[in-house]
């Protein structure tokens, strides 16, 4: 059963990576749109596209990796999630497609158009909301069963305070993470105007995010008490660490110091909360139908997947480092002194 | 339509859209790598400009390819949950490795596209295209492996209706894996060469910017030579596929050719109409013995007929037309590219090289090759009916039972229309008022400075 642990850790890690880098991307789209409408786009957009153009496609792969890995390591969950998520996941897919495609049209095309920017900017906020549905459903209580077939209970989902608080949390977190990263990027680019704007946004979104996460905690108690108790009794220290990281990130940004460290603190803050949430949820992937130890793929396939995964990482990590080196850590590129084409 | 039909329709629609962009995705990196290589080797800025312009257009198609690919990846679980529950147990490995290949490709593609002027050595940038080509081809190989598993399942045993004793590597390297991957990659390269040739031919026919003629002629030469080479490869792959089907999936081959009664000296039937009750084919061109010859290089080979299979297991007989269309479009591309290459080889024919009929012919090869790809996939996918995993799981047992299927189908149909129209619009605008000679001049200027 060691493979079920390997599988779940691998998937959780990749999901976490996706959440961080996709948030940067989603939030950036919204900020670009907001800047355009308020006539501040000259301040911001060149900075965003300098970062995003080379990395957006890679962001998308993290997501593909997560759901392919899910099917691979836990095929049993494919049956449940696949059936139940037909409509929410399809909506998320349509939004993702519009966003990805119109990002390319807007940025690589001949000329940019406001409607395209609107499509690209707004979808970025709806995607986390619709993807968060998967998280909500996994807490149980939203699936109805008739004999051997089962389906999603929409009324239950739409009327639940828990599902709505998760949606709001997802959206605000996206804006928070994104402005955190872009503040750092703008600071590195020595772009004072963009920096001022982004720093303001980062400080603006921080407090409401913490408030809503508390509300999510409280409503989880109603939705799935086992999970709530496990989180509070066994993993409280992870959430405390997360809060400390949040405070450090906020203080550093307030004092306009060490923005690299501030963003690392944001990553740790998210990391502690995310792994605390995940660990307290075990042993269920989907409460109460799918337990991760029972749903795991057969041993020979798990072995093959683990080998493939290790070989794949040996290839990926150096490539990713190269990518970051060229587009995030290269000071001259970030400052816009090297051309894109 | 019941839910199985809708699920099939939606999957078919998604794949039909995705395959356009996936084909470009597999074929294109090699094209711009070759152009860039020629640019350095021949010290000719035209080729470098060609590589730059091709890769610029590619950013648009690759974006749509990525999103439609993501869609089909998730739709497999959404529309065919039972299949994925089973498939996850047996073929997760190639799916997983496909993602890695795609990852690898995505990283290096980003680097390739945004580092034209970042490196000092002139070869460094070309070398960056190699991982892109490798990533793209390998993701095609792995995903074709998943599809070929559905045709020729391997690597497991069935016990009490469950798949046990799974051998991941045997499932991945199943019987049809190699022959199908070869066909997929060869035809993708062929199609991409002809699409780029068609663009060049179009520009030459329109002749709006006369200064560009030399540039487009160079593009035409490169793409048509490559087109002919890859067409020969595709034909070889097609021939191997027919032989393979004869051995392993005879009902598919018989359905392609409306071959009802088992027998030697089997005819190859070309188009025509079929009366399904009497099994009479009318109006067709029949070439006696050719089917036997294709199946085994011998006209006396016995080819199994449709009547020897259980009726419930037969694919729809419409696949015959897809087969005919695919083959004739492929042959058309072969004739045109061979004619063009002949004008390169024989001095006497040279005056026909850029003659109008030749250019019009070349203009048609691009769409023809892409249509052949579509028909080929319709053919092979419908030829597997009624199975989703041949011999083990039927399509109707694997489809989702969830509500909301019709809504989702309409949603995706609208999305695909928007994506295709806007990407065509953006691509056309990208090059409409951007004469190539300016790009060539820009490249030479950069080189002069170095």
TrEMBL record, chain A:
Signal peptide range: none
An example Gene Ontology CC term for this record: plasma membrane
UniProt keyword terms in alphabetical order: Cell membrane, Membrane, Transmembrane, Transmembrane helix
Membrane-topology descriptor: Multi-pass membrane protein
InterPro entries: Cyt-d_oxidase_su2
Chain ranges passing through the membrane: 6-33, 54-74, 80-105, 117-142, 162-186, 198-220, 235-254, 261-280, 300-328
Compartments (UniProt record): Cell membrane
Coiled-coil parts of chain: none
Main location: membrane
Family, similarity comment: Belongs to the cytochrome ubiquinol oxidase subunit 2 family.
Name of this chain's protein: Cytochrome d ubiquinol oxidase subunit II
Native organism: Staphylococcus lloydii
Automatic annotation (TrEMBL), chain B:
Record-level GO cellular component terms: cytochrome complex; plasma membrane
BP GO annotations: aerobic electron transport chain
Pfam families recorded: Cyt_bd_oxida_I (PF01654)
Protein family (similarity comment): Belongs to the cytochrome ubiquinol oxidase subunit 1 family.
GO molecular function, one term: oxidoreductase activity, acting on diphenols and related substances as donors, oxygen as acceptor
Species this chain originates from: Staphylococcus lloydii
Topological type in the membrane: Multi-pass membrane protein
Protein name: Cytochrome ubiquinol oxidase subunit I
Segments passing through the bilayer: 15-38, 58-79, 91-114, 126-146, 182-202, 222-242, 318-346, 358-379, 399-428
């Amino acid at each position: 059963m060691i493979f079920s642990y390997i599988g779940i850790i691998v998937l959780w890690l990749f999901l976490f990576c996706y959440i961080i880098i996709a948030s940067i991307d989603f939030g950036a789209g919204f900020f670009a749109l907001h800047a355009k409408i308020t006539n501040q786009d000259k301040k911001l957009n060149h900075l965003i596209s300098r970062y995003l153009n080379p990395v957006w496609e890679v962001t998308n792969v993290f997501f593909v990796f997560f759901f392919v890995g899910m099917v691979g390591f836990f095929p049993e969950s494919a049956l449940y999630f696949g059936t139940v998520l037909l409509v929410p996941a399809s909506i998320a897919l349509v939004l993702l497609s519009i966003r990805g495609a119109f990002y390319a049209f807007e940025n690589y095309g001949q000329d940019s158009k406001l409607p395209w920017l609107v499509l690209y900017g707004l979808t970025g906020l709806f995607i986390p909301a619709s993807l968060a549905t998967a998280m909500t459903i996994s807490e149980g209580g939203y699936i109805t069963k008739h004999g051997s077939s089962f389906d999603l209970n929409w009324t239950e989902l739409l009327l639940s305070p828990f599902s709505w608080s998760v949606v709001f949390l997802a959206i605000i977190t996206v804006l928070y993470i994104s402005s955190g990263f872009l503040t750092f990027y703008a600071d590195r680019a020595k772009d004072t105007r963009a920096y001022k704007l982004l720093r303001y946004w980062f400080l603006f979104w921080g407090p409401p995010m913490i408030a809503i996460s508390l509300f999510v905690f409280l409503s989880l108690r109603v939705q799935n008490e086992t999970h709530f108790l496990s989180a509070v009794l066994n993993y409280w220290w992870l959430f405390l660490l997360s809060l400390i990281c949040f405070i450090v990130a906020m203080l550093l940004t307030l004092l306009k110091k060490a923005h690299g460290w501030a963003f690392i603190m944001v990553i740790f803050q998210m990391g502690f909360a995310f792994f605390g949430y995940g660990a307290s949820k075990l042993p269920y992937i989907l409460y109460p139908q799918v337990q991760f130890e029972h749903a795991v793929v057969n041993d020979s396939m798990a072995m093959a997947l683990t080998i493939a995964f290790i070989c794949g990482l040996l290839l990926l990590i150096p490539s990713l480092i190269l990518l970051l080196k060229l587009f995030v850590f290269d000071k001259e590129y970030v400052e816009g002194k090297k051309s894109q084409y | 339509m019941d839910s199985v039909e809708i699920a099939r329709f939606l999957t078919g629609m998604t794949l039909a859209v995705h395959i356009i962009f996936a084909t470009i995705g597999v074929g294109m990196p090699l094209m711009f790598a070759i152009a860039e290589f020629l640019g350095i080797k021949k010290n000719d800025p035209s080729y470098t400009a060609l590589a730059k312009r091709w890769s610029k257009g590619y950013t648009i198609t690759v974006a749509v390819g990525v999103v439609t690919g993501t869609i089909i990846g998730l739709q497999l679980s959404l529309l065919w949950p039972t299949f994925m529950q089973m498939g996850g147990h047996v073929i997760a490995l190639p799916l997983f490795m496909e993602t890695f290949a795609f990852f690898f490709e995505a990283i290096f593609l980003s680097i390739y596209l945004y580092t034209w002027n970042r490196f000092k050595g002139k070869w460094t940038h070309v070398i960056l295209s190699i991982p892109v080509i490798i990533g793209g081809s390998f993701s095609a190989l792995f995903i074709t492996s998943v599809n070929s598993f559905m045709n020729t399942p391997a690597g497991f045993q069935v016990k009490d209706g469950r798949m046990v004793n799974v051998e991941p590597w045997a499932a991945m390297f199943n019987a049809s894996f190699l022959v199908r991957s070869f066909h997929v990659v060869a035809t993708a390269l062929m199609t991409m060469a002809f699409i780029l040739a068609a663009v060049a031919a179009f520009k030459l026919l329109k002749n709006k910017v006369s200064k560009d003629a030399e540039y487009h002629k160079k593009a035409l030469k490169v793409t048509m030579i490559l087109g002919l080479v890859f067409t020969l490869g595709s034909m070889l792959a097609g021939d191997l596929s027919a032989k393979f089907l004869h051995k392993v999936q005879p009902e598919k081959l018989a359905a392609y050719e409306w071959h009802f009664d088992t027998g030697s000296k089997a005819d190859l039937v070309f188009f025509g109409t079929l009366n399904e009750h009497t099994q009479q084919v009318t109006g067709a061109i029949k070439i006696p013995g050719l089917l036997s010859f294709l199946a085994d290089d011998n006209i006396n080979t016995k080819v199994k007929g449709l009547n020897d299979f259980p009726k419930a297991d037969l694919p729809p007989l419409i696949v015959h037309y897809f087969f005919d269309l695919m083959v004739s479009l492929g042959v058309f591309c072969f004739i045109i590219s061979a004619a063009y290459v002949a004008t390169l080889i024989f001095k006497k024919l040279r005056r026909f090289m850029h003659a109008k009929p030749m250019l019009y012919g070349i203009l048609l090869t691009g769409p023809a090759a892409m249509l052949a790809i579509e028909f080929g996939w319709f053919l092979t996918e419908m030829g597997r009916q009624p199975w989703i995993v041949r011999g083990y799981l039927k399509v109707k047992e694997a489809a989702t039972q969830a509500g909301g299927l019709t809504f989702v189908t309409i949603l995706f149909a609208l999305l695909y229309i928007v994506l295709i129209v806007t990407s065509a619009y953006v691509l056309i605008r990208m090059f409409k008022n951007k004469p190539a000679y300016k790009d060539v001049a820009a490249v030479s200027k950069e080189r002069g400075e170095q």
